[in-house]
Each structure stands twice: as C-alpha cells, then as structure tokens.
Write a structure and sequence with these properties.
This protein is α/β, with parallel strands linked by helices. The chain is built from 14 helices and eleven strands.
C-alpha cells in the first residue's frame, strides 16, 4: 500500500514537473513572439516596409543628435525618451507611404508636395520625424521648420524690418533656425559647388561676395543676429538655385504649415497692430520653397488645428485649416491622412509600455484604455504618463 502511494505520488510530481517545463517554455515563446511583434531590429529607414508596420524601431543616438537636437520631436515625446532611455518611433502607414514615394519620385520633374493631416494627437509630427530620419540617412539637404506657430504666436522678439517697408523681423527665431539647419546639414554644407549665386549686401561694411560658400550666409545670420531674418530668406533662395542645378537633393519639411496663412498672430508693429504672417520676413523664404517651380526636391508639410487659435477649430481637413489662400498655394498636393491607432498599433504600443515597465498589466487593461483614449496616440500617452 505504501509502495503504491509512493509510486502514485512520484508520477504526479513527474507530471507536474513536465507541466511546469511546458508552461515555462510556452511563456518564453509567447514573450519572444510579443517582442518580435512590437519591436524591430531594422534601424535602416530605407528598408522599412509594410512588413514593419506597427513596430517600434530605435533611432541611433548620433542620428537623434544630428537631426533632432534643435527640434522636430514633440516635447511630451522628448520627456518619454528621457524616461525610457531610448528614442523609439512606431513605423506607421503614412510615413511608409511617403518614404516609398520619395524612393520612386522622378526628381527631374517639378517638386511634389505632400500634406499630412489628421485630428489632434494622431501622430503627424512623429510621422514627419520618421520621414526626416529617412531623408537624413539618404543624404537629402533638409530644410525643416519644427513648428511654424512658435514664430507666429510665441516668437522670442520682433522688430520692424530695416530693408522691407511694412515687414517685421523675427531675428532671434531666425538665428535659432539657422543653427538648426546647420546642425542637420553640416555634412553637406562643405560641398565645393555650394556657393552663392550673387552678392549680398547687409550693410555698408558687411557684404557676402558672389561665389562665397553658402555657409557664410548661415554664419553671418547667426553671428549678426540683426540680419538673421534676411539671411534666412537669402539662404532659401540659394538652396532653391543650388537644388535646381543638382548640387543638392532637397527635402522641405514644415510642421504646422497652416500657421503661415492664419491672420491672428501675436506679432505686432510699433503701433501695436497685428501683423499678418505674410508680412513676417521669415515667411517669404519658406513660401518660396513650398512652390513647385523647381526640381530635385520634395515638399512635406503638416496642417494642424493646434497651429492656430483654439477658438477657431472647425475641422482637421486641409481645406479648412489652410483657408482659400493657403489651399490654392499648395494645390495640387498629395493628401496623406494620419489617423488614430488601428488595433495592431494600439496593442503594439501597449506592449512597448509594458516592456518599458511604464504600465503594469491587468486583465482588461487594453480594452479599457482603448475605449477611454479612443485609440488616439497622444491621448494614450497622457493616460499612461506618471501623475
């Protein structure tokens, strides 16, 4: 009897041990499957395709420093980067669509314009960041404005233009943008053919001669802040000329482009009159670059409700946000919709947060958060943020 009991107990323990082994093996397999689903080891943007959709890829620290040191990533996302100690961007359909187009465009034809649009917090800026990273790796000359509304509604200072009657200069903002441009394109600015097409007279004693390196214009605008706005306009004109001559292949990327056409700015004249964006000197250069009268270039802009005053939110569609004048300026363009997370993207994001120990999982968590956040990427980020 005792022997029978001992044999039975031994069999039960053996069965239990095997079950534990199987359970552990299944758990590990499940973990690896999840890791493979929400993260990819492919960091080369040119190789990203539909196979990588809804997966996170890591931006190398040196790439982040070169492309995004002075802007391009939302502040809340920057906070998340510091917390997670890594810069990971989700690969989404809008970015893949634009990247595929940039690979196949005929750059001998007039520049093509893409407009990213969508509801607040759906990821337009991060999709643009993914595209910028691709452009940087592919040696595009990048002309990037991180957020136009910072100039029109939160400018550092403003002063009447000395060269253009009725215009206002944002010289501190202009100098900051020149630093940003220099940081993103330092490896291309030393190109021997990158020289000015004409002479620029800044004052009686300050002149940039014809055939000077275009970096001289940049450095002059940074060192002599008084002329920063004019230096930006001159640089934009020279970029267009050099790109037409095939010295560069250029990508123009402007976030919050509709702010260039929204009349209610917080820029004022000496008489405290509101200045229309078209009378801000910086605007001239970037409206010039967003035309299609040049080649070897592509233009990508976002339109956003947040770029204008809150009380004037009507719709997230380009026609409403750009207004008649802005829409006609960009027409024709390729519209790219950036929508809320689909099911795969939402689950991938939650797995990433759990992997980073940012949220603690519990039964029904995904369903609850998806319902409350309506699958809005920014909304989900805020809900999972610390108190």
């Amino acid at each position: 009897m005792l022997r029978t009991t001992s044999v039975t107990l031994s069999r039960k323990l053996t069965r239990l041990y095997k079950q534990c082994l199987y359970s552990t093996s299944s758990s590990l397999t499940s973990t690896y499957d999840k890791l493979e689903k929400f993260r990819t080891s492919e960091t080369d943007c040119s190789k990203h395709s539909n196979e990588h959709l809804a997966q996170f890829y890591e931006v190398a620290q040196e790439d982040k420093k070169r492309v995004f040191t002075y802007g391009g990533l939302p502040k809340t996302f920057e906070t998340q980067i510091k917390t997670f100690h890594e810069t990971c961007i989700m690969i989404r359909q809008p970015a893949i669509d634009v990247i595929n187009c940039l690979k196949t465009l005929d750059y001998s034809k007039p520049a093509v314009r893409f407009v990213l649009y969508g509801k607040k917090g759906c990821g337009k800026s991060l999709s643009l960041a993914h595209i910028l990273h691709f452009a940087s790796k592919e040696n595009f000359l990048i002309v990037h404005v991180p957020w136009v509304s910072n100039w029109m509604r939160r400018c550092k200072e403003y002063s009447n233009s000395e060269k253009r009657e009725g215009y206002v200069d944002l010289n501190l903002d202009g100098a900051a943008w020149l630093v940003h441009f220099k940081s993103q394109n330092s490896h291309l600015l030393s190109t021997p053919e990158a020289k000015t097409s004409k002479e620029y007279v800044w004052s009686k004693r300050e002149v940039t001669p014809k055939d000077s390196p275009i970096s001289d214009i940049i450095d002059h605008g940074i060192n002599r802040v008084k002329y920063a706005s004019e230096a930006v306009v001159a640089l934009c004109a020279e970029i267009k000329e050099l790109t037409n001559r095939s010295v560069f292949k250029t990508l123009v990327a402007i976030d919050g482009f509709n702010a260039f056409f929204y009349p209610k700015t917080r820029v004022y004249t000496e008489k405290k009159e509101v200045v229309h964006p078209h009378n801000v000197t910086l605007t001239e250069g970037f409206l010039n670059l967003s035309k299609t009268d040049w080649k070897n270039a592509a233009i990508i802009v976002t339109v956003d409700e947040i770029a204008i005053a809150a009380e004037d939110h009507i719709s997230h569609l380009p026609r409403y946000l750009l207004g008649k004048e802005g829409f006609e300026h960009l027409d024709p363009f390729v519209p790219i919709s950036v929508s809320e997370y689909n099911e795969k993207e939402f689950l991938s994001c939650m797995e990433y947060y759990r992997d980073r120990k940012w949220v603690q999982g519990y039964p029904g968590q995904d369903e609850e958060l998806r319902f409350i956040s309506t699958s809005n990427p920014y909304g989900l980020m805020k809900m999972c943020a610390s108190l």
